[in-house]
């Protein structure tokens, strides 16, 4: 079954124009969905708007949008007034500029779409734009009206096609300053940093989305199957709380260099023969915090 386009229009770069279509790249439609039921009758419960004061149902034609200006006071907006604010669309993804692919912080990324030509006649112009961008290692910033709003879109080469990602507006992206305001400036000891680097190097891998399982979705599917088959549902036992450990010891354990290990820490030489430790009071544990890098 052919994919259904969410939007059709034109991709315009300078004087080069080709008809294109946007297709959903990420969707939640395959997730398990539930309906709300009346426990007594087993019938579905339907949502209905009622007046907050009188409790009486409000029919669709009597519903209008309102903006609250003060407590309990609203500015009423009629449907035709709201419709008049929707920007006019010429169905054109007009490229304003090309930027380096890593110039934009992905915190601005909203939703991805596949961008493809709509017919064979458009494939040559489409391929020219795609391969030109790939050769120069750039992405395109374009604007168009999508779903009643003017949106900025980041366009990047992706295999034989393009990926068009809608971008969040600046006012929608919250500053990281407040979230990171309580993080102290800490000095990390060289030994701790060496151990952290060693752990990271042993855990290096490649991104493979097929290896990541949605455990919640899988558990829901098992639950539904068990209910259908009439099997007994066994409640899951709560996890034991994690132990609070010394950071340095935790790093050594992660690197396979825990107490009793003969391995030398990264950057250190093994002493060979073991020395008998002289009896002395154990040193006080040092507290440490992993340094977090601020988002740009």
Question: Secondary-structure blueprint of this entry?
Answer:
Blueprint lengths: L6 E7 L2 E9 L40 E6 L2 E5 L1 H5 L8 E9 L8 E9 L5 H14 L1 E9 L2 E10 L2 E7 L9 H4 L9 H13 L12 H15 L17 H8 L42
Parallel strand pairs: 1-5
Antiparallel strand pairs: 1-2, 2-6, 3-4, 5-7, 6-9, 7-8, 8-9
Helix pairs in contact: 4-6
Give the count of helical stretches.
6
Query: CATH topology of the domain at 7-27 and 86-172, what is it called?
Result: Ku70, Chain: A, Domain 2
Shape: extended
Protein structure class: alpha+beta
CATH architecture of the domain at 7-27 and 86-172: Beta Barrel
- Rg from alpha-carbon coordinates: 29 Å
Report the biggest beta sheet as strand number plus sense, adding barrel if it closes: 7 strands, mixed, barrel
Order of helices and strands: EEEEHEEHEEEHHHH
Quantity of strands, as a count: 9
CATH class of the domain at 7-27 and 86-172: Mainly Beta
Describe the structure.
- With 296 residues, the protein is α+β, with helices and mostly antiparallel strands.
- The chain is 20% helix and 24% strand.
- The chain contains six helices and nine strands.
- Strands 1-2-6-9-8-7-5 form a seven-stranded mixed barrel. A two-stranded antiparallel sheet has the order 3-4.
- β3 (65-70) and β4 (73-77) form a beta hairpin.
- It is extended.
- Mean pLDDT is 84; it is low at 269-296.
């Amino acid at each position: 079954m052919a994919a259904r386009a969410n939007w059709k229009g034109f991709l315009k770069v300078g004087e080069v124009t080709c008809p294109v279509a946007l297709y959903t790249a990420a969707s939640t439609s395959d997730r398990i969905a539930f309906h709300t039921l009346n426990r007594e009758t087993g019938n579905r419960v339907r949502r209905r708007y009622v007046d907050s004061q009188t409790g009486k149902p409000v029919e669709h034609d009597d519903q209008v949008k309102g903006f609250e200006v003060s407590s309990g006071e609203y500015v009423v907006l009629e449907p035709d007034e709201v419709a008049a604010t929707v920007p006019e669309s010429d169905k054109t993804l007009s490229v304003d500029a090309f930027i380096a692919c890593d110039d934009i912080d992905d915190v601005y990324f909203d939703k991805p779409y596949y961008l493809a030509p709509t017919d064979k006649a458009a494939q040559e112009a489409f391929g020219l734009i795609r391969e030109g961008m790939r050769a120069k290692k750039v992405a395109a910033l374009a604007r168009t009206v999508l779903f009643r709003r003017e949106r900025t879109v980041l366009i990047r080469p992706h295999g034989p096609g393009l990926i068009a990602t809608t971008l969040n507006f600046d006012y929608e992206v919250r500053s990281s300053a407040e979230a990171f305001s309580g993080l102290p400036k800490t000095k990390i000891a060289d030994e701790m940093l060496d151990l952290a680097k060693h752990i990271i190097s042993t855990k290096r891998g490649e991104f493979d989305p097929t290896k990541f399982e949605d455990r919640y979705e899988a558990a829901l599917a098992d639950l539904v199957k068990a209910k259908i088959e009439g099997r007994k549902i066994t409640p899951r036992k709560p996890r034991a709380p994690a132990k609070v450990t010394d950071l340095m010891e935790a790093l050594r354990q992660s690197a396979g260099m825990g107490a009793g290990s003969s391995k030398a820490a990264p950057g250190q030489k093994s002493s060979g023969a073991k020395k008998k430790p002289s009896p002395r009071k154990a040193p006080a544990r040092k507290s440490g915090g992993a340094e977090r890098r601020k988002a740009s």
